[in-house]
Each structure stands twice: as structure tokens, then as C-alpha cells.
Amino acid sequence: MRERWFGATGRKVPEVAVEGTIDLEGALVLDDVSDVAAIRQAHHDGTPVVVRCSSPEEVHAALSLGPVACALVADEALLSLDLAEMTYG
What we know:
The protein is of the alpha/beta class. The protein has helices at 36-45, 56-63, 83-88, and strands spanning 3-5, 12-14, 16-18, 28-30, 49-53, 68-73.
């Protein structure tokens, strides 16, 4: 399981996690990646950024943004995505 830094908290979290399985205290939780300005500002402030995702494409889009710490999913099948394959083919 790959991990990412959870903002400036000093914690690492799984890059893809089932919603409800990790502590999101203090994080900016978004339903999509459309608010790039908010994502950049949160990253600048050291606030962890988490995005809810419901498809492989949404997970890929969220994790393509460096400031995003974690993609939250409801479907456990999304935990096994091959993100390298999705990115590089």
C-alpha cells in the first residue's frame, strides 16, 4: 500500500482509503478536484487535502495532484487500482 504525507501533520496515510477508515481531523475534504485554488491554498497552509472519489478516473485525477494526500472511496475494489498503469500505460 502506497502512502502519502497528510499535509504538515507529520502523519502518512494510504493514498487510497475506504471512507471512515482514517482520521480526517483538520483536513480539507472535497467532493472533486475542481476547486484547484482551494487545494493549492490548503497545501500552502499545510492542511491535508482529501478528495472523495467514486470511479477509477476520479481517483487518478485526484492523485495526479501532488497536494492531495488521499482519495477516499466507498467501493473497496478501487483500493487495488494500478495507478502506474493508468498513468503510463
